[in-house]
Amino acid sequence: MTSLQLSAKEEMVEKFLDAAARGDVSQVSTLLSHAPSLINKTGFSGWTALMLAARNGHHHVAEKLLSLGTITSHLSSLHLQQEDFTLCRFRYEDVKDLLQKPSTVMIFLGIEKVKNPPSSSQTVESVSEPPVWFAVNTDEDAAVLLKRCREKNCLFPRSPNRDLLKLSEEEAGIVAQARSVLAWHSRYSFCPTCGSSTRPEEGGYKRSCLNSECRSLQGVHNTCYPRVDPVVIMLVIHPDGNQCLLGRKKVFPAGMFSCLAGFVEPGETLEEAVRREVEEESGVKVGPVCYVSCQPWPMPSNLMIGCLAVAMSTDIKVDENEIEEARWFPRQQVIDSLFRGARPAFVFPPRQTIAHQLIRHWICMNSNL
Ligand SMILES: [Zn+2]
């Protein structure tokens, strides 16, 4: 799902985590002396150096990390990572002039949940209203816009795919909603039925045609509402139950393999889409398919539907227009790659992706990990 090579900073993190996973205490110490902040960093699998060292039985490395003050809470390390990048939040006064521009589109996101409901001793007047959030699409220059923001560490994503993975679950959900709906507005300025101009309605969740004669104004039409495009993403299991099929696209970072995926076509069931996509991309025939979980992916409006599928054949013949390579990986190689064994067979997709979760789900189905 990602399209960029690792940055120098990410390479350093990967090198550090690899040293911890291998039990190389001298390399761990050397890297920390150059970059102390590495100590609580997580890699693509979401694991810190302490977790990897402890998992692989390298107690001397774990003791070293603890003596240097590593954070033992996984949640805390995630918070540290998030300091690199947070969503821009503006007050109404900061952007109210932008809202007057005809090119600006604003959509309603929701009302923030009240975490601590007011106690009975508080008067209605003393309780402030929870914030109401909107997302704004504007043509103003990003650098100029950033100056309006009063919060620190805000950035606009340069690579939406990759930067989305750096956000917390809550913020990623906000981006998924906002980006999908705003992308729909930017693509559907004109009525798909008659070609007339349209205008946003219902807080940005509908567009209505300005031509009073238009058929789209009678009944419910899917051209009037934001679209969601279903994509099946599947982990194909070998008939022997002990290997899984993973593929890589040319745009993946070096060494990364992931689940096969593709759009559902009109008239297809999810099971048929899984079988067709796997056969088209890899030549492998698939029998039973079962749904596992799903993930909204706002690039621009996909719903990734995660499935496990059982192969009925094993010969691989890749469609080179779709993927570069596909291979069967034995379960032990997959486990070693997830937990960064000495020689991982491949790089896992990032922890936040459904591909990662599907592979992990399969490993956990028949093991005590
Ligand atoms: Zn129309």
From TrEMBL:
Against SMART domains, the record matches this protein to: ANK
Give UniProt keywords alphabetically: ANK repeat, Hydrolase, Magnesium, Metal-binding, NAD, NADP, Peroxisome
Segments traversing the membrane: none
Question: Which cofactor does the UniProt annotation name?
Answer: Zn(2+); Mg(2+)
Give the source's domain of life in one word.
Eukaryota
Q: Where is the Nudix hydrolase domain?
A: 226-352
Asked if NADP is a keyword of the record, the answer is: yes
Question: Catalyses which reaction?
Answer: NADPH + H2O = reduced beta-nicotinamide D-ribonucleotide + adenosine 2',5'-bisphosphate + 2 H(+); NAD(+) + H2O = beta-nicotinamide D-ribonucleotide + AMP + 2 H(+); NADH + H2O = reduced beta-nicotinamide D-ribonucleotide + AMP + 2 H(+); a 5'-end NAD(+)-phospho-ribonucleoside in mRNA + H2O = a 5'-end phospho-adenosine-phospho-ribonucleoside in mRNA + beta-nicotinamide D-ribonucleotide + 2 H(+)
Tell me where it mainly resides.
cytoplasm
Q: What class of enzyme is it?
A: hydrolase
As for family, the record states: Belongs to the Nudix hydrolase family. NudC subfamily.
The protein's name in its UniProt record: NAD-capped RNA hydrolase NUDT12
